[in-house]
Amino acid sequence: MSIRSGPRKEEAIFAATLELLAVHGYDKLAIESVAVRSGVNKTTLYRWWPSKDALLAAALTNSGLLSIDVPDTGSLRTDLLAVARQIARLLTSERTAPIVTAALTVAPRRPELAEVARTFFADRMAREQPIFQRAWERGELRLGLDPASIMDLLAGAIWFRLLLRGGEASPAFLAETVDLVLEGGTQNL
Amino acid sequence: MSIRSGPRKEEAIFAATLELLAVHGYDKLAIESVAVRSGVNKTTLYRWWPSKDALLAAALTNSGLLSIDVPDTGSLRTDLLAVARQIARLLTSERTAPIVTAALTVAPRRPELAEVARTFFADRMAREQPIFQRAWERGELRLGLDPASIMDLLAGAIWFRLLLRGGEASPAFLAETVDLVLEGGTQNL
């Protein structure tokens, strides 16, 4: 039994929402099409999500398609590397890259969707919190640091390299990025 | 005398290109409209830039609107802080934020524009290179580091915080980000 309540076939609804977003874009995303694609009555959809934005926010945040496994490998370095690999995979895999790109290109033009983005990333950060909690308990992370700043660096670098600079997120790049986030670029004499 | 050659009123042409991109988006950006707005004959524009993409690439790379001053403050930390402030300003100021957002939302959907993005960021990186060269000469930066990785972290974190997470790039955030890039998040016992 899941703790969070939702309609039957919830994951199919979320997947249909994200796939239609990827193919048609936000403007042409229609709750009716989600109903057809997921085989769920549209009144059911409206009962759970009163608007397109509400459905989209729920799909982005809760769909298994975009979820990441929160690692617990025993060290901060290998935990962050596992997260970095998953972010890079979401941004490049054939199934998820078009969804991420569509969501990315929608949000900055639509202030009303900023709340969706905020919800999504706040949820991500809350799920990733145990990584940092355990790192503090192991004495691996400087006290007083905001874990969101660490994730901004790590996720930001991967986004920037892949989607803006048009580069690749090779294993060497991901490892170097995690090392930089942990050790910094300063020469330690 | 400028070394780079270009038509008269080049900056007006670039500004018109970027402002029209911001207002109308890539699809409706037309060389004819750039000609009208900048008061330059459209045959002149076609002579210098044979396509819309060529004009857009030149405008993004060379317009003063999006340029950043490469600082030389005497330390890597204050140089990076100066760059970070300029990136945050470009992403938030009333005049430039719509241009950046328009460019951002276009690029991932149009593979043919990936080359424009690559050109833009390669040019940025080449200009920023002296910051890192001087840091190496002062012994401030670990040898063997790729400056692009440092800039991915710094710029990526600011983009991520502002445009994806929907947060703010406060002075404290920028300072913390630069410190993290330089010192890393690891607890140094």
UniProtKB/TrEMBL annotation, chains A, B:
Keyword entries, A-Z: DNA-binding, Transcription, Transcription regulation
Pfam families: TetR_C_11, TetR_N
DNA-binding region: 30-49
Coiled-coil regions listed: none
MF annotations from Gene Ontology: DNA-binding transcription factor activity; transcription cis-regulatory region binding
Residues making up the signal peptide according to the UniProt record: none
Domain HTH tetR-type residue range list: 7-67
Protein name: TetR family transcriptional regulator
